[in-house]
Amino acid sequence: GMLEVHWDxxxxxxxxxxxxxxxxxxxxxxxxxxxAGRGRRGRTWLSPPGMNLYLSALKRFDGGFAALxxxxxxxxxxxxxxxxxxxxxxxxxKWPNDLLAGNAKLGGILVELSGEYSGPCxxxxxxxxxxxxxxxxxxxxxxxxxxxxxxxxxxxxxxNRIAAAVVTELTEGLRTFDRHGFAAFADEYAASDLLRGxxxxxxxxxxxxEAVGEGVDDRGALCVRRPDGVRVTVDSAEVSVRRN
Length: 244
Ligand code: ATP
Fold this sequence. Notes:
By secondary structure, the chain is of the alpha+beta class. It folds into 2 domains: 3-192, BirA Bifunctional Protein, domain 2 (2-Layer Sandwich); 199-243, Roll (SH3 type barrels), CATH 2.30.30.100. It is 25% helix and 33% strand. It has helices at 12-18, 71-85, 137-141, 148-151, 159-180, 186-192, and strands at 3-9, 27-34, 53-61, 91-94, 98-101, 104-115, 121-129, 199-204, 207-216, 222-225, 231-234, 240-243. It has a 7-stranded mixed β-sheet with strand order 1-2-3-7-6-5-4, sandwiched between helices. Strands 11-10-9-8-12 form a 5-stranded antiparallel β-sheet, with no helix packed on it. Strand 4 (91-94) and strand 5 form a beta hairpin. Helix 2 crosses helix 5 (159-180) and helix 2 packs across helix 6 (186-192). It is globular, with a radius of gyration of 17 Å. The N and C termini lie far apart (42 Å). Adenosine-5'-triphosphate (ATP) is lined by residues 39-40, 43-46, 97-98, 105, 108, 128, 130, 141-143, 145, 240-241.
C-alpha cells in the first residue's frame, strides 16, 4: 500500500476511485481540504482546510459485494478503536455510517463498491473526522455537528497522531474483515450502537414509520420493532434513520 497526502483535492475517495486499476491494496489518500467531499446519496461532506481528517482507503476483496455487507459498520468500529487508543471514549455509532458524540455528528463513513457482484471487487472507504471545525460550519451542516476539540475541551491530539491511529486500525481491521467479515466486529459494534433500545423514525422511500432499535443482524442490517410488535430488518441503501 501507499499513503499520499494532498493539499486540496475534489474528494479523497474520488481520487482513489480514479486509480483503482493501478493502485496497490490498502492504499490511502489524505487531504488537507476537499472541494467536493461527499456523503451518501449526493449529499455534501463539508471539508474546509484547517484541522480535520479527510482520508480514504482502497481495499480489494476477492469474494464480491455480497460478503461486504456490514463493512461500513465494521469501519465504524475501527474508528472507535482508533479514538479509544487516543483516550477518546465518548464516541458512538449511528447506523449505518455515522460517528456521533452526544447528539452531534463527529465523523462519517462512506463506502463505495466497484467491480463484480460475486467476483473481485474493490471498496473505496472514505472517512471524515472533525478535529477542529470553523465556527461558521455549524449552521451550514443542517444538523448538530461537533469536533474533537469541543469534546476534549479545546486540546485534541495532534492530527498526525489521529491519522496514524486511523490508518493503523483500518489496515489491520480491513484485513480482519476480509478474512472473517462483520462477525469479527459484531460485539464491538453492539457496544457502540447508539440506536439500540432507542425510539427511531425510519425514513424509507416506501413510507416512514416509527420503531425501536434492536441492534443489527449478522450482515449488519438494522433490526427494529414497530409499534405493532412486528420486527423488521432494514437495509441501508435507501433508508435513513432519525432518533425520535
Ligand atoms: P443518513 O442517515 O441518511 O446517512 P446523514 O445526514 O448521516 O444521513 P450522510 O450522507 O452520512 O448523511 O452525511 C452527509 C451529511 O452530514 C450532510 O448532509 C450534513 O448534514 C452532514 N455533514 C456535512 N459535513 C459534515 C461534517 N464535516 N461533519 C459532520 N457532519 C457533516
